[in-house]
Amino acid sequence: MLAGMFSTPSGPIAVLADIHGNTWALDAVLAHASTQGATRLITLGDLAYGPLDPLGAVERIMALDLPAVHISGNEDRVLWESLEPVEGHTSWVFTRSKLDDSHLAWLANLLSEQSIGGLFLCHGAPGHDTEYLLETVTPQGLRPSTREHLDQRLKGIGEDVILCGHSHLPGIAQTTRGALVINPGSVGLQAYTDDVPHFHVVQSKSPHARYALLERGDSGWNVSLEAVPYDWESAARAADLNGRPDWARALRSGWI
Ligand SMILES: [Fe+2]
Known about the structure:
Layout (H helix, E strand, L loop, with lengths): L1 H6 L5 E4 L6 H13 L4 E4 L10 H10 L4 E3 L3 H8 L8 H9 L2 H8 L4 E4 L2 E4 L12 E4 L2 E4 L2 H7 L7 E3 L7 E4 L5 E4 L7 E4 L5 E4 L5 E9 L2 E9 L3 H10 L3 H9 L3
Parallel strand pairs: 1-2, 2-3, 5-8, 8-10
Antiparallel strand pairs: 1-13, 4-5, 6-7, 9-10, 11-12, 13-14
Helix pairs in contact: 4-6, 8-9
Fe (ii) ion binds next to α4.
């Protein structure tokens, strides 16, 4: 039934990724999507993890009263997969302390990838929830992926639209065979650094919450990459309160 709802053209689909417990941003995005007539919702993982409001984010998504498909992200997975925190991961301890067994069971039941209504959903890249798709990490930092890289990574995926997240950077690219790869950007965290597989900086360069609206039109898919203002000061204060001034800085500015 859900697959049918997703293939029937009845208003845009709101595509959200990397909410990371930011309920201030999530509320603003859901309100914006509603004003744009969105009738269906897709989330692409990394819903709860971080020093903000993991419980609020999970409860809002679990309680949503509209057709929705959710997949798991790598940082949802570590919440139920790991029995003990990796040393130094204070956000793992914080996030786990806010969620009970029912929330963890709900996260553990999410599929890591899904094909629905002509769309292929994954968190990072197909088969790899910790790898980017539209970006490539090099020893010199983050670079946009080449079309050859996309073709290679999407071998065997037959859908015309591939939705991915994980890099927190909004983007859209077409493969050689004409498939559309769309990353809606991150709802909840606009900048971070990572050391794997090489040090790299990710920053969307403004604090707005990002998401995408997707609608099938007569001449193809219409894609709107949205940037929504919200109360990022409250989110940043929560990050400060929970010991993550780096998150607070990123939330306030969108820069590292
Ligand atoms: Fe992720």
